[in-house]
Amino acid sequence: METTNLTIKEIEAIRQIRNGLVHYGQTPSIRELMVKLGYKSPRSVQDIVEKLMNKGFLKKTKTDSLKLTKDTESNSRHAQTVDVPLVGTVSCGTPIYAEENIEAMIPVSTSLAKTTSKYFILRAIGDSMDLAGIDEGDLVLVRRQESADNGEKVVALIDEEATIKEFYKTNEVVVLKPKSSNPDNKPIILTEDFRIQGVVTAVIPNF
Predict the structure, then answer these.
(1) Which helix (H) or strand (E) segment is 44 a member of?
(2) Is 165 tagged catalytic?
(3) What is the domain partition of the chain in residue ranges?
(4) Among residues 67, 165, 177, 180, which one is catalytic?
(5) How far apart are CA 174 and CA 168, in angstroms?
(6) 41, 44, 114, 128: which is the annotated catalytic residue?
(7) Which CATH superfamily groups domain 78-204?
(8) Which CATH class is domain 2-75?
(9) pLDDT, tens only, 138-186
């Protein structure tokens, strides 16, 4: 099993890093990890981070932040889960699920993420879909596809920015409709100048 070459502190460090990525969109700082792991010196945490990088669990990004490249949970439940990329801020000009946007790989039950399809996880921003049960900070499981049926919740890329809306199409136009308690959120009316990145299949609340 993947965890056999990890110490208890290394496993706990991975758990804290995963939790930071999932819930806050960023890895804990060295000092935050120091407190969570019960150390008195940041050097001890830096040693753990370096060992996890050497073992292939972490890597540094171009901005020197940490990226979780594999997870202790995914192999221990290999038969029941599939690793799905958690996507952070989308870079202009790149697909949402491009490698540079991936913050972590999250184990998701195969009852939610079917192995016959490809998925990604997006962190919701704003309140444009709060009446559809998607609040800011929630994680949204998205099945990758470039088309959708009327009424489905889609992730669309408009002017290189991702938005989650309900999809409706007539012969002439596409309407991306919010489901919001905020009247400032208005429908977006388009022709073909956008791209569907996927369809929302599940929402994981941000408790």
Answers:
(1) helix 42-54
(2) yes
(3) 2-75, 78-204
(4) 165
(5) 6
(6) 128
(7) Umud Fragment, subunit A (2.10.109.10)
(8) mainly alpha
(9) 889 999 999 999 999 999 888 777 889 999 998 889 999 999 999 999 9
